[in-house]
Amino acid sequence: MPIVTPIKTLPKIKHVRAFTVRGGGADYHDQGEGHWIDDHIATPMSRYPEYRQSRQSFGINVLGTLVVEIEAEDGTIGFAVTTGGEPAAFIVEKHLARFLEGRSPTDYEKIWDQMYFSTQYYGRKGLVVNAISGVDLALWDLLGKLRQEPVYHMLGGAVRDELQFYATGARPDVAKELGFIGGKMPLHHGPAEGVEGLQKNIAELADMRAKCGPDFWLMWDCWMALDVDYATRLAIAAHELGLKWIEEAISPDDYWGYQQLKRNVPKGMLVTTGEHEATRWGFRMLLEMDCCDIIQPDVGWCGGVTELLKISALADAHGKMVVPHGSSVYSYHFVITRHNSPFAEFLMMHPGPTEVVPMFHPQLIGEPVPENGRLKASALDAPGFGVELNRDIAMHRPYSH
Ligand SMILES: C[C@H](O)[C@H](O)[C@@H](O)[C@@H](O)C(=O)O
Ligand SMILES: [Mg+2]
Question: Looking at ligand 1, which atom is closest to the CA of residue 345?
Answer without folding.
Answer: 12
